[in-house]
Amino acid sequence: MANSPLAKRARGLLQSIKKISFTLDTHIPEKSWINSGLLTTVRFIQPPEFPFLKGDFISRYSGRNVGKDKCEGEKDKVRGLWQGNTMTMKTFAEILLRGMSQVFLLNNVATGILFFAAIGYSSWFMGIGAMIGVLVGTFSARLLKYDSNDIQQGLYGYNGALVGLAIICFFGFNLPSVLALVFGAALSSIIRKGMSAWKVPPYTTPFIISTWIVMSLLIIFNIIPLQAARLSDARNVEIIPAVTKGMGQVMFLENVIAGIIVFVGILVSSRITACYALLGSSIGVAVAFASSFPLNMINIGMFGFNAVLCGIAFSGKKWTSLILAMASGIISVFMMYGIMKLGTITLTAPFVVSTWLVLLISRRVGAKHLL
To answer: How many CA atoms lie within 13 A of 226 on its CB side?
Structure first.
């Protein structure tokens, strides 16, 4: 019996259990760069198939459906992350794509691919700008030896990508603008690191600050002229184009097809997040129309994109999530209009400020975190 096939299999199974163990612990800490989602902790104890891993390895993924069925997927993700001190090209590409998806508070490679596709469909030059931005932001963080786990999750890429999109959108694609976006993307990573100890999520604040600095320098020293946007007259609200463009405008994309691709990218990562994104853009259109804001700006999604991010930031299955998402979205619309009246390029400042405000109020009144 000791040498029977069944006994041999049992001994082999016991040896495998001794060599490798997984401890799966799911709870609700941070979601990519906001306070929600699931943290999956996978502990490897000298696994034979991963000789480059020693001790514990902890990785964070923001998909809400992470659980025991994702354990094998986590194992595959770990396989390519670090090999000695050298990062593989495949891993680096995945990090860049994750960084692109983090623009919408997501962490998904396929989503990053679709976002790049949406940008490329709208403008190849902006696609190049986004690629340069996410590359510079990520590489700067790695060069400065910032937290490797944050780098792997794309947390130092999304601000750089947004800087690249903004600079190319407002100043065109030329040598001075490319140099400016490289500087801005690197600066955004430094600011992101400085804000990592804050008690509130940094959101897109590093992008906002670095882009405002770069744009001010370009304008003050008359290096490149700011490209003026041309708005056509509108007599009524085009609801579907306005809602769709609201999602694309997060990445400065004024195109219905690009907006649809962006929505699909969000949907691929999370259905509930996609619903909240759609809700946010719809709130932006409805509130702006009810407030008699300019119709031509409503139709190009200018009052929807901040509300989209507000919706995603508070997305969850509880009613409190819905209430806070709607509240922050409504506030962002009025904040957007107010900042615009001051003659300032708003970027995503209304989203950040309104979300911080709602978070502060909810904590003061003792609201539990809802995601």
So the answer is: 15
Domain extents in the chain: 17-68, 88-228, 231-371
Say which amino acid occupies 81: L
pLDDT at 2: 52
Asked if pLDDT for residue 292 goes beyond 50, the answer is: yes
Contact at 8 Å (CB) between 226 and 171?
A: yes
What whole-number distance in Å separates Cα of residue 92 and Cα of residue 90?
5
pLDDT of residue 80: 46
Does the pLDDT of residue 21 top 60, yes or no?
no
pLDDT tens digits, residue range 330-349?
999 999 999 999 989 999 99
pTM for the whole structure: 0.78
Cβ of 92: how many Cβ atoms within 10 Å?
Answer: 17
Integer CA distances (angstroms), 134 to 36, 151, 155, in order:
23, 11, 10
DSSP, res 104 = G
Taking the alpha carbons at both ends of the chain, their separation in whole angstroms is 54
Check whether 171 has a pLDDT greater than 90: yes
CATH level 3 topology of 231-371: Ammonium transporter fold (1.10.3430)
Burial class (CB in 10 A: 0-12, 13-18, 19+), 238: middle
Fold designation for 88-228: Ammonium transporter fold (1.10.3430)
